[in-house]
Amino acid sequence: MQGEERLIFAIVAQAVRDYQRALRYLRLPASKKTESGEIAHERLKKDCEIFFRSKWYSQLCDLDGEELMATVKKRSYNGKIQGLSW
Questions:
Q1: In b/e form, how buried is each residue of 74-83, taking b as 16+ CB within 10 angstroms?
Q2: Strand partners for 81
Q3: Which among 7, 19, 35, 73 is placed 20 to 30 Å from 45, CA to CA?
Q4: What is the Cα–Cα distance from 19 to 21, expressed in whole angstroms?
Q5: Smallest Cα–Cα separation from 83: which of 19, 16, 7, 2?
Q6: What are 56-67's pLDDT values in tens digits?
Q7: Structure letter (DSSP) for residue 84
């Protein structure tokens, strides 16, 4: 993998990790969340969704952003997204 491909992978992989983290936090019981944590993770979730739907994202890779978000949502409890390892 060349430097440019590594950078693209790193950008997309980080967005996936951030999205997964936000979804997991937002699914916690209210007793385990703070108001500021909920606000921050809701913003992170929205920022990731904007990224996955952006023109820039579609220029970075061929993965469908909507499909990727759906996959992350389905797998947000088990810790790994198939095909992406970290």
A1: eebeeeebee
A2: 84
A3: 7
A4: 5
A5: 16
A6: 999 999 999 999
A7: B
